[in-house]
Amino acid sequence: MDDQSDVEVLGRTELFRGAPLDLLAEVQRASFRKRFAAGEAIVRQGDPPATVYVVVVGRLRVTQTTLDGQQVIIRYLGPGEVVGYAALVDGDAHPGSVIAVDDCHLIGWSAAVVRDIMSRHSLIAINVARILGGRYLDMQVRLRELSTEKVERRIAHTILRLVEQAGRRTARGIEIAFPLSRQDLAEMSGTTLHTVSRTLSAWEERGIVDCGRRRVVVAKSQLLESIAEEQA
Amino acid sequence: MDDQSDVEVLGRTELFRGAPLDLLAEVQRASFRKRFAAGEAIVRQGDPPATVYVVVVGRLRVTQTTLDGQQVIIRYLGPGEVVGYAALVDGDAHPGSVIAVDDCHLIGWSAAVVRDIMSRHSLIAINVARILGGRYLDMQVRLRELSTEKVERRIAHTILRLVEQAGRRTARGIEIAFPLSRQDLAEMSGTTLHTVSRTLSAWEERGIVDCGRRRVVVAKSQLLESIAEEQA
DNA sequence: CGGCATCTTTGCGCTGGCGCAATAAACAAA
DNA sequence: TTTGTTTATTGCGCCAGCGCAAAGATGCCG
């Protein structure tokens, strides 16, 4: 992984998409690379945001934790996505934690550097707006699902979204390409691991999914979609 | 309301905050004023986003509706806030509808004009990023509440947020300064109007709130806060 | 290969809050 | 005032899904 290839990678991230080559080169010179092992924390909830990253390889989980230790998963981040957006919009604390699910390779900058680039290049500031607009939209949809749908539908929607985001074709069907426990699914769907487990067991019986320990493979996505859309 | 005072108003909006006077004047010249009566739709879900507004006076409700007619309230908008953000980040359809709750006075621009200003002035693009970052953050908090808290706490949090956003001191306590039905509260808290009604009745008995038809006054905010924070 | 930690499954009982339905109150129009 | 419309209240029964608990499966690491 040399500097030249980093420039190419940066040009494909949501943050620097569309930037001219000289800007990408400048951005590359100001960057550093960093690796995190599975389970390591990249960002801790409450910390002051000092660094911005983009994901090169690997998968990250963004969570928010309450005082009494309950967690929700805000989203997963994959290649090309931004980690630590709070540093881009002068938040004074990270609203959530980010943990590596896989072994990850990130490229990072100090917050000041990226903020400076944003103010000198409106294109980058516009990219940030687009990124946050997209995440805001995602949350609107999830909020609506959580408010109006029953658990089974919510779990179905959650899995379909993950398939969209990180699905990998296999012999048995489409596999979600990172380790994903029942607890994780519960924290994304607003339910408990017990209910997720029961639901997946029922689906497995019908041949809709094929799961293992921290592994989910969707065999009949058509059926899953119909569960996600059914009324009542 | 002459052009000069419009410039002052614009300088205080979240979208144009910090802009130099000449830019504000340019923005003002490209703008038009528009009024909406209570109940009128400013934006309809699914429409292509062609116009951006900022609120001068009045209150607006942003909702998202499912195919089968169920609604959730995404947020309320008040003076200084942006209406129709999708037009700023090239969404191809408005993700929700916006309805006037009061009689409203807005200032608007065609999407192309504001997008052009964003690309010529990174400050404005950065403001957009900040706005969307703030809304994204709000949604994270609400999603967490909806996932982890029981109804009574959620309703308490919802009311406290509205008080924060649109509270007005009165003799009886702090009043939410726009008409707000039980149904509205239900659509913000992820429950039914029945449960909201029962909960408010119980609180009224304890003297915590004092409500009427589409009206909520918080008499003992301390007690309401303790309900919002209590464990279990 | 065995021991340990983590993750998953499943039975059972309980309850928060939903859904229905009927009444009452507030407001607007005429 | 009457009439109609929208909004709010409240009783009652029910059930989806939570919480507990205990056993079972899987994979890791020494």
Please describe what this structure looks like.
The structure is a homodimer. By secondary structure, chain A is an alpha+beta fold. Chain A folds into two domains: about 5-145, Sandwich (Jelly Rolls); about 150-230, Orthogonal Bundle (Arc Repressor Mutant, subunit A), CATH 1.10.10.10. The first copy, chain A, has helices at about 5-10, 20-30, 110-120, 120-150, 150-165, 180-190, 195-205, 220-230; strands at about 30-35, 40-45, 50-55, 60-65, 70-75, 80-85, 95-100, 105-110, 165-170, 175, 210, 215-220. In chain A, the strands form three sheets. A four-stranded antiparallel beta sheet of chain A has the order 1-8-3-6. In chain A, strand 4 (about 60-65) and strand 5 (about 70-75) form a beta hairpin. In chain A, helix 5 crosses helix 6. The first copy, chain A, is globular and about 55 Å long. The model of chain A has no long low-confidence stretch (mean pLDDT about 95). The interface between A and B is large, with 43 and 43 residues. Chain B binds a DNA duplex (30 and 30 nucleotides) through helix 7.
Write the layout of secondary structure elements.
The structure is a homodimer of 232-residue chains.
Chain A: H1 3-11, H2 21-29, E1 32-36, E2 41-43, E3 51-57, E4 60-65, E5 71-77, E6 82-83, E7 97-100, E8 104-110, H3 111-120, H4 122-148, H5 151-166, E9 167-169, E10 174-176, H6 182-189, H7 193-205, E11 209-212, E12 215-218, H8 221-229
Antiparallel strand pairs in A: 1-8, 2-7, 3-6, 3-8, 4-5, 4-7, 9-10, 10-12, 11-12
The structure holds a DNA duplex (30 and 30 nucleotides).
Features:
homodimer, 232 residues, alpha+beta, Jelly Rolls, Arc Repressor Mutant, subunit A, 2 domains, 4-stranded antiparallel sheet, 8 helices, 12 strands, globular, DNA-binding
